[in-house]
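Question:
Write out your own:
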Amino acid sequence: MAGKIVILTGAGLSAESGLGTFRDEDGLWARHRIEDVATPQGFARNPQLVHDFYNARRVQAADASLNPAHLALAQLQEHWPDEVVIVTQNVDGLHEKAGAQALHMHGELSRARCAACDATWQAPPQMTPQTPCPACHSPAARPDVVWFGEIPYHMDQIADHLADCSLFAAIGTSGQVYPAAGFVQEARAAGASTIEINLEITDVSRAFDSRRIGPASQAVPDWVASLLA
């Protein structure tokens, strides 16, 4: 088997690195409403709260350790004879820490963006509503993450990759949030084989040709080993 592989990764990939999802019953997300910390409206109402939340997430991500799933995907990207495109919903930067390259459709915790002029830059560890933009100097810095109600990044590029891949894999994602939830249909329409790797069956499992159920740290390395064998 050969051909381009497109891999969509979600929060389940990093859960074993100690980074919880917003569906977990404990952790950072459990102490806040999504509407307050992950929407443009929430930022407009209380920018300090939003900055405090993402400052904490930034520290948490910086301290997170790689797990075997991150390392396995980096190995696949390095050794597969054709292109391996990782598209991630994660903002934690762990793909890069493992040595892989990824398209960050939901942005990156390590980046900041100006709400006034749209410039982006490396985020400092702590930001406040007074943090100035280095380009226009407005006190309009925000996390460079895509909030609910905003358009994800790289969508045209992702669509092109889905249209000419031979294999599409979704790893650690619930399949409940669009547009990513529709990637499997796009890949199948283009003739790709599809596989879901997740901790449990999801609402979209039936849309995939095959699936592997189990912790990402075990299921992903096993899958990569089978591809590279």
About this structure: The chain has a mean pLDDT of 92. The longest strand covers residues 107-114.
